[in-house]
Write a structure and sequence with these properties.
single chain, about 260 residues, alpha/beta, Rossmann fold, seven-stranded parallel β-sheet, 7 helices, about 40% helix, binds NADP nicotinamide-adenine-dinucleotide phosphate
């Protein structure tokens, strides 16, 4: 097989939530594959740190602070990327939040709005801005970080609702924008050890219970998403659109059968 299909050389990638966790690992993976990477999140310092890490190993990167739920900031983010590089080939909508871990019964309006605005509304309008650029340049790839929480009910409440909506939004954007050679796909991780998911793995007892539910008998590391991101971003995935790729160690298939340890 021609492995150069996985190359992202000459492509410009923008990653939201790129300063930590899954986004940081994806930024490294795309840069390693040859892309010029724009690392974005609310706090500039974290973005600069990742951009510097990439540059230190010979990659191309830039940091831009932007809040995905502030549409004026998204507009200026896309303008900055296109004025700097003249194009945008890959958008990874990865910024996400979950400000409330608790029963739906007591969720308040403020945390509902934050979750919806960051995980869903911001993702949609940034995609729309990016898609207009991609349409004019002849195509592109949009990758949305969803969650297995968007595929089956869990205790993460409204967060799961936003991720289910991200999966459907992925499908409808793929259906509408395929005619412009814009592919839109999602990744649905299980528990990946990041700051966002700390409540699901940091405490040893909670960790043990979580691991027991994973057929691979371990939680995921952010770097384990990198291969899927590069596949979807590159020509290796050129006929894949409207797809959600699950990266969860097998969790959606149920607890490990016949556990031996
Ligand atoms: N970890 C998991 O187990 C897991 C599982 C399934 C799905 N996911 C999804 O994976 C994505 C990445 O999460 P993660 O686990 O890597 O979390 P993380 O390590 O906490 O990183 C979250 C990133 O999002 C940025 N961010 C947060 N709010 C933002 C906003 N309003 N505008 C722009 N950037 C914002 C953060 O930087 P700033 O603070 O600088 O803004 C940070 O870069 C999320 O969409 C999450 O829902 C995670």
């Amino acid at each position: 097989m021609n492995l150069s299909l996985f190359s992202c050389e000459g492509k410009v990638a923008l990653i939201t939530g790129g300063s930590r966790g899954i986004g940081r690992a994806a930024a490294h993976a795309l840069a390693d594959a040859g892309a010029t990477v724009v690392v974005s999140s609310r706090k500039l310092a974290g973005n600069e740190e990742v951009a510097e890490e990439i540059k230190a190993k010979g990659g191309k990167a830039m940091a831009i602070a932007s809040h995905v739920a502030k549409l004026d900031e998204s507009k200026s983010l896309i303008e900055k990327v296109t004025s700097e590089f003249g194009r945008l080939d890959i958008l990874m909508n990865n910024a996400g939040t979950n400000p409330y871990y608790g029963p739906l019964m007591y969720q308040d309006e403020k945390t509902w709005d934050i979750t919806m605005n960051v995980n869903l509304k911001g993702l949609f309008f940034l995609s729309q801005l990016a898609a207009r650029v991609m349409k004019d340049q002849g195509g592109g790839s949009i990758i949305n970080t969803a969650s297995i929480g968007g595929m089956r009910a869990s205790d993460l409440g409204v967060y799961c609702v936003t991720k289910a909506a991200v999966i459907m939004l992925t499908n409808v954007m793929a259906k509408e924008w395929g005619q412009h050679n814009i592919r839109v796909n999602a990744i649905a991780p299980g528990i990946i050890k990041t700051r966002l998911s700390e409540q699901l793995w940091k405490d040893p007892e909670v960790n043990k219970a979580a691991v027991a539910k994973v057929p691979l008998l371990r939680l995921g590391e952010p770097e384990e998403l990198g291969g899927v991101v590069v596949f979807l971003a590159s020509d290796a995935g050129s006929y894949v659109t409207g797809e959600t790729i699950v990266v969860d160690g097998g969790v959606l298939h149920g607890e490990p059968a016949h556990p031996e340890k």
